[in-house]
Description:
The structure holds two protein chains of two kinds.
Chain A: H1 4-13, E1 18-27, E2 30-33, H2 34-48, H3 56-78, H4 86-98, H5 103-112, H6 117-137, H7 146-163, H8 172-202, E3 205-207
Chain B: H1 18-26, E1 36-38, H2 46-52, H3 63-75, E2 79-89, E3 92-101, E4 104-111, H4 119-126, H5 137-152, E5 158-167, E6 172-181, E7 186-187, E8 191-195, H6 200-207, H7 223-239, E9 246-255, E10 260-268, E11 273-276, H8 284-290, H9 293-296, H10 301-317, E12 324-331, E13 338-345, E14 351-358, H11 365-369, H12 389-404, E15 412-418, E16 427-435, E17 441-448, H13 455-459, H14 472-488, E18 495-502, E19 508-516, E20 522-529, H15 536-540, H16 553-565, E21 569-576, E22 585-594, E23 598-612, E24 624-640, E25 645-654, E26 657-666, E27 675-686, E28 693-706, E29 711-725, H17 734-737, E30 741-753, E31 764-774, E32 782-796, E33 802-817, E34 858-871, E35 875-887, E36 909-918, E37 925-931, E38 937-942, H18 945-950, E39 954-959, E40 963-969
Parallel strand pairs in B: 1-3, 4-6, 7-10, 8-10, 11-13, 14-16, 17-19, 20-22
Antiparallel strand pairs in B: 2-3, 5-6, 9-10, 12-13, 15-16, 18-19, 21-22, 23-24, 24-25, 25-26, 26-27, 27-28, 28-29, 29-30, 30-31, 31-32, 32-33, 33-34, 34-35, 35-36, 36-37, 37-40, 38-39
Amino acid sequence: MRRLPLVCVLFCLSLNGEIVDRIAIAIGRQVVTELQIDEELRVAAFQNHVPISEDLEARRAAADRIVTQLLVSREMQLSRYPMPPDGDVDRYLAQIRSSFASDTAYHQGLDAYRINETILKRHLADQLAILSFVELRFRPTLDVSDSEIRSFYDRELATWKTDHPGIPAPSFDAARPAIRKTLTEKDTDQILDAWLEEARKQVNIIYLDKALR
Amino acid sequence: MTGSIAWPQSSPRPSGSPLFENARKYEGRRIIAPIQFDPPDQPLTHAELRAAIPFEVGSSFDIDKLRQAIQNLFATGRFADIAVDVASQDSGIVVRFITQRAFFVGRVVIRGIKPPPNVGEQSSATKLRLGYPFQPSDTVQATESLETLLRGDGFYHVTMHTQTTYHPHTESVDIEFDTQTNKRARFAEPIITGLPERSRQRIIRSTHWMRVYGLLGWREITESRLNQGIENVRRYYENHNLLNSRVTLTRLDYSDRTNSVTPTLDIQSGTPVAIEAPGSRLSQGRLKQLIPIFQEHSIDPDLLVEGQHNLQQYLLGEGYFNAEVSYSVKQGTPHGGETVTYRVNRGERHKFVRLQISGNHYFTTRTIREHLYLEPATFPRFPYGRFSEIYLTQDVQSIQTLYTSNGFQSVRVTPHTIDNYGGATNHLAVFIDIQEGPQWLVSSLQIQGVPATDLSALNARLVSSAGQPYSQASISDDRANLLEYYYNNGYLNATFDYSVTLASSPNQVGIVYTIHPGDQKFVRNVLITGLYTTRASVVDRRIELTKGKPLSLTAETDTQRRLYELGIFARVNTAIQNPDGDEVSKNVLYDLDEARHYSLNVGVGAQIARIGGGVTSLDNPAGSTGFAPRFAFGITRINFLGLGQTLGLQTAVSTVEQRAALTYFIPQFISHDNLSLATTALVDNSSDIRTYTAHRREASIQLGQRLSRAYTMQYRLVFRHVTLSNLKIDQLLVPLLSQPETVGLAGISVIQDKRDDPTDAHRGIYTTADLSYAPAKLGSQTQFARGLFRNSTYYSIHRYLVFARSTQFGLISRTGGRPSIPLAERIYSGGSTSIRAFPDFQAGPRDLTTGFPLGGNALLINSLELRFPLYGDNLAAVLFQDAGNVYDTLSDVSLRFRQRNLQDFDYMVQDIGIGFRYRTPIGPLRLDFSFSPNAPRFYGLKGTEQDYLNGTAISTVQKINAFQFHFSLGQAF
């Protein structure tokens, strides 16, 4: 209802001009515009080598990712966490480029998704910032015990034996690093989700585009 | 397809959204007209809008810059929504921002709720914070929260109408909640589940939810009454030694039909627990204080250990340094359950006889001792001293803090205790060795990040400076002072950092303060809401913020304080509108709640003093101990005529006084914080001076001026008309002295107060000088001048010993009119705050026939006191000596010790005595006993006034009793 007046005005005005952008979400005093969500969709599709999905679910997911990035970025500024160095972004970009068959294919891809390298680098920097935040904030608090690794191995071993009869399973010692990594990531996701839930409560998030809620 | 993205054949090619396609069309095209805004009336100025938008006419259209523009505009907080459209024209494009204004929470009014919940609870339940952005959905949430709150207090049927009023001019929204509630629900008989093992009646009675044991039904339910009832049940079980009982509220069922609420209490009574502490000699009450299982209703090992520790510490504090405490839990009490036994072996009581501090050079031992709580034994205050390991640890920490805050960063404080000190059994000594280490000094201090023009103002506020001790405490003070400077000048987001580096000289550091002032904010406007009867000018004159000037947080809170000090507002809520917005100018809001206009006070008391002896009896000129009940009633109308001024009527009735005073008080007179004006009309009949009953009609006006914290001036005009009756004086004098007297007085008083604590001073000075003149021009029938001077000083001559002295001098000099100073205008003295050798107003000249006091024209009193603690921290004692008297004239003032004859009153009456002071939050309770070796003797009469008139009264020798006692509140001076 709150947006109705503006929507009516926009409708009338759009008879003369074309709406090119508007606020989709307000997070405190920061905004996410419709074009920002659009850009996120195109960059994500480019990175994943998939077509751009225009459906509402995809837009909601993209909006959610931007909200997460803004919350993390806000916390990093407040708590003075270091941002990832430019070198990391360049290495990440190189990794993306190497996923294309050639430099030409890479540039054709950027054109096809209507983004440029500056936009891509900005998004990569945001993604690295989240990883860096998780690493600095949560990783030191996580500790996967040997018993957790053992029970995970035992569960997976049973599944292996069913799925791969006759093929010897990797030994516990050989699997231990990979299991530890998996469990750590799982715990990290959980703790990050909990942190995000709390962070969302502490800031006023208004979905001006109700469909994104 | 090498070199291109391999799409699944069925998938569409990448594409964009309609908005993106729209925007992309215009990317790079030239903006040919000024940026447009719709509606044209925008909340920001053109300059502010231009500053927020990073493109202009002639620029190329850029999607990233457009996003930045939207972000910048929204960050000001003045917009609720923003969209941008673009129209194409032949030679370029036209960009238009379509905006919706933001609104902010203004005044929130909630009507129709009978407390509880109180106004504060109602207001905070809405979560509508003054000045914060407002969304229409906020009212829905506020309504739900209010309804929940009201249900908790028994209002189950609530009709709430919400009305929001938008004020576009101030961008605020006033929100009103009109509430209609049904009658508050009552308790119904609780349902008890579980294993209560006590009768239902007893449990229900213990809740106190019934009125008069149920004879008057059930009480109304409120949240606090509900919780208190449950707590009462817990306490009931606790009193029956069922310490591990559990009382839980499991349900609250509301019945619409009866408008009542049935609480369901699940009770597990648990098993009886007996607590014993053989050998401790502690009362059950003390055990309850020390052993936390009583408070926690649980017997777990942690609480038992905590109880053991508390007992041990308590005994240590009592001097039982070798006390051993252990505990055991045994199943089985006389009634089943458990017995917790704390076995206490107190051992010998020790005496803390010596505290020695060594190694201190920078601070004197006395200075250090002032920071310590440990106290060696002194009789009678601390017969065994005050010592425990905890006190010792705290005191060591205090010494360390004292040194580190003065630059001794590596100070080491090592305590060492010796038992059986000096060969005396159970004598304890504590030695505290201090290794001060080097004192670190500041070699240089720089302030960075601020304009050079600010430096002189900032430097003046610094605590740290080159050559001064380096300490974190000083840096912390500097931080507060520097930030305060910026906050006061509108830099609301100023930040402070510092760095410390070792200097080239040993034990010296360089400090650099880095300040980021941030953006300066200014006052856009000051908006005041909530005035209904108060005139706006009353508030406006007290606003210290000026439109267009820097937004000072100190000025904002000072204004709030000034408004509170008017005494006419129950609540002064202040906030900055749009606090998080980036805008340069901000509105400052004051939302006021006017206090109730009328207040009543009723008091009942009694006076016990030397006021007895009968109205017509002449037997006791000095009075006999009497009792006078006293009733007081007052009514006050605050904010009279909406001017912030107070009209009050105070009355008092007792057998010695009947009094009514009508006062009109103007605080902050002519909007000046330091001025006040009081006008009083008084009708008073009093016989506190036993010689007569004075009937006084008085009008006065007094201007008070606080010059500084220590100095106050008072200027006054007094007009009074006094008639006397029941005169107990020589009949020959009655026609002269009983004449009605009109006096017009102009006076001035100077008060100097530099005491550390006005209720119980330890050091400082207190002086009053009161000068007044009664000229014929003011209607005085007798012209006279009067001066009264009092000076008191206080010296802390030892850590706990205070020497106080006070001198009073007064003089009245007749300059014209009637032949003598009117009886009621003379100086009277004696009593608990002057010469304690006398009962109240009994000093000085007396009627030579009846012996009743006549007052005098000169006064000289000197008092000395030695104040010291007597026992523990609350009981103190005073040895005092008073000397002085009221004299007939100035030339009669004498230091003579002996009374020459029974008609001589011009000598110095002396007294010595002892007093006791018991510390209370409102000042010490005082009991003084005095002995006067030269209390006056004088002629008096036996008989009544009628006997005297008949000539049958018998002349006798009377005296002021050599022993007097005074009971009062506060020190004598």
